[in-house]
Every structure is written in structure tokens, then in C-alpha cells.
Amino acid sequence: MDEISFMAKEQEKVLTPHHDALVISLTVANCLVKRILVDNGSSGNIIFLAAYKDLGLEESALTRRITPLIGFSGEVKQTAGEVNLPVYAEGIKMSTKFLIVDCDSSYNMILGRPWIHGVGAIPSTLHQMVKFPTSWDIKVIRADQEYSRSCYQTTLRERPRSYSNYRASLRLITPRNQRQTRRKFAPERDAIINDEVKSLLGVGFIREVQYPEWLANVVVVKKKNGKWRVSIDFTDLNKSCPKDPFPLPHIDKLVDSTVGHPLMSFMDTFSGYNQILMHPKTRRKHPS
């Protein structure tokens, strides 16, 4: 197999200097599709719903499978389904699975790592081309910088409004001090709380501080094994803090990540937690 390399002379037709993304055109489902972003930072191949309809494909042909896509800032977008489409690249046909996303985009498709690895391609944004091996020789797909810059400008025109809304939402987050009214407990639970506090004080896990503005009661809950758990009621504190939802990984990814490892730890699963010591100067600022 020939070696894939990039030469300085291959930049002669590239508009330099540049920071352009790699935007190409390919034949997909027997149609020439332009504005395809090659992104090795994407874990999936994406086709936007508007482009899917423009190909003349029916929504009934796609598989209704919902997959959460997570952006770099943590936002989550649910897919509308998935579909397998033939992608032709320099005489090579490859059946490619696309995730369908219903949202506005300056691109028609995004070819991520599944397609890049599937054809053994090596993209170079510097040289504005994609190279991949075949049984005969090394094939080259040249990018279109004009389309790349057009997509970038379109994205910039669409972004300011959403960014200003995001900044406004940040300014609206003004946590108010929360001071819960002191709760009274039955003598039995008072004894449980006192024993727990003495135990934690004795090992230096907690210390006495004064929070005149943020006060929360303790909560005593009986566990299945008959023991009692003493916790803190952070209900009001949670209401005052901005939410940062982060979806848990799929179980199949968790299982796959254990393959090849001789040991698996369940240390945190049963009856306790591993605690990380905080810096002494910041301990009094932490609510728990």
C-alpha cells in the first residue's frame, strides 16, 4: 500500500493564510451534495433533516432511534432517527450510517470519525484535502474554501442572537440566601444526629462553622439494613443554584470501557464514598 503524505507544493492552490474548516462535496444517494463538513471531532456522521428531505427521501425510510448528541458546551440535542445511505468518494462506494438531526445548520452533512476511519482517510485542514487509500492508489478529495468560508459567515450571522440570550440568562441567575427554619426531632432521632455529629467531629471530618445567611437542616432516613443515614437538606440550595444537567453515558459504553481490564472496582457502590480533602482556605465556603 502506498504511503499517505502531504507535500508543501500541495498548498499552492490553497488560499493562504487560512483557518478554514474542511468542507467537501460528495455524491450521496445518487445526488451531488455540497457543504459537507469533514470533522474528526465528531463521534458520528450527521445529516440534517432539511438536507435529508432535499434528497427526496421519505421520513418513513429512516429508523426511529433516538440518540443524545452532546455539544462542546454540554448542550444536548436529540436525533430524529438514523439512516444508511450510499456515499461515493472517488469511485469508492461505502454504505454509511447517518444520524438525522432536525435543526438549522449552514452545512448539509457532517462526516465524523466513523466515515473517516471507515475509508481509512486522513484529512488535512492545512492542505484543504482528504486522502485515503484504495486497492489501486491514493485518492484525493479537495475541499472548497469558498463554501467553507460561506458556511462560517452564515454561522456567525446566526449566532449573535443565541449568544446574547445565553448571556442574558446568565445575568438572571442571582441566588438568594436561604435560611431554613430549625426543625425539631423526636428524642430518638436527636440522639442519632448527636452521635453522628460527634463521630464526624471526632475524626476531623467536619468542624463547627457559622452560616448566618445559608442554613439547612439535617434529614434522618432509615436505610433498608435498619441503620440510619444522616444527611443535609439541600432542597433550597439546589433551587437557588443554576442547573447543569449532564446525561449519563449509555450502559453499553460503560460495559465496553471495562473490556481488557483485569479488575473492576465497586468501592463506591455499597456503603460509603471516597472523599477528596478540600483546601483549608475553601472549606468554610463549601456547603457540604
Set out the fold topology.
Layout (H helix, E strand, L loop, with lengths): L22 E6 L2 E8 L7 E3 H6 L13 E3 L5 E3 L2 E9 L2 E10 L7 E3 L1 H6 L3 E3 L4 E5 L4 E5 L2 H27 L15 H16 L15 E5 L5 E5 L2 H6 L10 H8 L21 H4 L5
Parallel strand pairs: 2-8, 3-7
Antiparallel strand pairs: 1-2, 1-6, 3-8, 4-5, 6-7, 9-10, 10-11, 12-13
CATH topology-level name of the largest domain: Cathepsin D, subunit A, domain 1
Task: Indicate the percent of residues in helices.
Answer: 25-40%
What is the rounded Rg?
28 Å
Helical stretch tally: 7
Contiguous uncertain segments of 5+ residues: 160-174
Question: In sequence order, what are the helices and strands, one letter per element?
Answer: EEEHEEEEEHEEEHHEEHHH
CATH architecture title of the largest domain = Beta Barrel
Largest sheet: 6 strands, mixed, barrel
Q: Which outline best applies?
A: elongated
By DSSP, the count of extended strands is 13
How many separate domains? 2
Q: What's the average pLDDT?
A: 80
Strand order, main sheet: write it out: 1-2-8-3-7-6
Secondary structure class reads alpha+beta
- End-to-end distance, in Å? 60 Å
Strand content: 15-25%
Could you name the key traits of this structure?
288 residues; 24% strand; 25% helix; three-stranded antiparallel β-sheet; elongated; six-stranded mixed beta barrel; Cathepsin D, subunit A, domain 1; 2 domains; alpha+beta
